[in-house]
Design goal:
The protein is mainly α. The protein is 34% helix and 0% strand.
Length: 53
């Protein structure tokens, strides 16, 4: 992306932050929990199929 695209995205983030005010909460790295299971379906380690959660 060009510099102007990056600046536009950053400005959009600032507008969103301003609109949310105190409702915006960043949970920190805890939102990225590590799992002992690898990628794929739990227990199978096979790729997920569309619509399969």
């Amino acid at each position: 992306p060009s510099r102007s695209e990056r600046v536009a995205k950053y400005n959009q983030l600032l507008r969103i932050e301003e609109e949310l005010g105190d409702q915006a909460v960043f949970p920190g790295p805890s939102v990225f929990r590590r799992s002992e299971q690898g990628p794929g379906d739990p227990g199978t380690r096979e790729p997920r199929k569309p619509g399969n959660r």
